[in-house]
Amino acid sequence: MEPSEGQFIIKDKTTYLYFATGNAGTYVVGIPILLRILEMDAKAFIAYLVHKGLKHAIAKRKALKN
Q1: What angle do CA 48, 19, 22 make, to 5 degrees?
Q2: Which three-class secondary structure state does DSSP give residue 16?
Q3: Which residues contact 22 (CB under 8 A, 6 or more apart)?
Q4: pTM above 0.85, yes or no
Q5: Domain that holds residue 13
Q6: CA 49 to CA 26: how far, in whole Å?
Q7: Is residue 3 part of a domain?
Q8: Taking CA atoms, which of 7, 47, 50, 53 is between 20 and 30 Å from 62?
Q9: What pLDDT, on the 0 to 100 scale, is given for residue 33?
């Protein structure tokens, strides 16, 4: 799940994530706690995505190219 606009807010130094669970159980949520700005050209950025294993981000970029 990737949170959409409005599902989270950042207030002071705390991030709040709003979501509804399905059935009763244990859920694990992971979110980055530090925003980072990466400055690199497109080729280096694709290499970064591959290195991080972010296949969904690579697929979205390819879809936007077409």
Answers
A1: 110
A2: strand
A3: none
A4: no
A5: 8-65
A6: 30
A7: no
A8: 7
A9: 64
CB atoms within 10 A of CB 63: 8
Q: Which ranges constitute the DSSP H helices of the chain?
A: 42-52, 55-65
CA–CA separation, 21 vs 29, rounded Å? 11
Question: What pLDDT tens digit does each residue of the chain (66 aa) get?
Answer: 667 778 888 888 777 888 788 888 888 877 666 666 778 998 999 999 999 999 999 999 889 886
Q: How far apart are CA 27 and CA 21, in angstroms?
A: 8
Is position 2 within any domain? no
Which residues, 6+ apart, have CB-to-CB distance to 31 below 8 Å?
Answer: 3, 8, 15, 17
- Residue identified by tokens 């190219």 is 65
